Amino acid sequence: MAKDYAYSPQIKKRIRKVIQNFANVLEASAGSHDDYLRHLDIHKDDDANQIRELYLRYRDHLAKGVVYFLAFKNTSEDIPGKLLVKIGYSTRLEERLKEYKRCSIHCKSNGSGKTLLQIPKRSLPTPAVFAHLLERIFQTVLEQRQYDYLCKCDTNHGDIFRFDPVHGISDEFTAAKCRVMDLKKQFEKWAEIFMGPMGLESLHKEVLSIHGPLLKRIEEMFKVANIRL
Ligand SMILES: [Zn+2]
């Protein structure tokens, strides 16, 4: 269990809060969405945005996916020499990595992203349940390293974390990989809480049966109204 790791009381408190906020969303009853949607008119832009926001929130909360770590090229003058690592989650990792072509990341020869680490492991075909929560927990554990990085894609990526260089390793990608490997065991233990034999699979199935229909319903609403979701 992750209790093997000596998190500060502050980080523990933050992790608890992240889990609590996540649970609060999933504890809403399915009926409360009916009421909410009934008062919105999809043909009004503001209302359509609210419905979209609800859709994205539940889509993220219910998603099964992969948490990935990417090495960024540090072009920032603020923190020379630091190694930059992005932590994200995706339900379609291969496509997501291609989208990073326009970012300052270390790429494969085809230009797409190259991960330092994936959780669950690449060899495991099953994605992680509640992958978005897993991502948020990792980000919370590292929050003191968080750095707002203005990327060459003109986005201020907030989910980037900075690490000290590794003595004797000048290659940024290899050095970042070393730093991430130091964290691997810890993060795999978290993944085990979600996906292991005592994991959250059945809880995930349950909340999916409660809130999954909401996603279908909203997709249908946008389709009928002929509006892009
Ligand atoms: Zn970028």
TrEMBL record:
Q: Where is the Bacteriophage T5 Orf172 DNA-binding domain?
A: 65-164
Write down the InterPro entries for this protein, in alphabetical order: Phage_T5_Orf172_DNA-bd (IPR018306)
Q: Which Pfam families match?
A: T5orf172
Q: What is this protein called?
A: Bacteriophage T5 Orf172 DNA-binding domain-containing protein
Name its species. Podila minutissima
Source lineage: Eukaryota, Fungi, Fungi incertae sedis, Mucoromycota, Mortierellomycotina
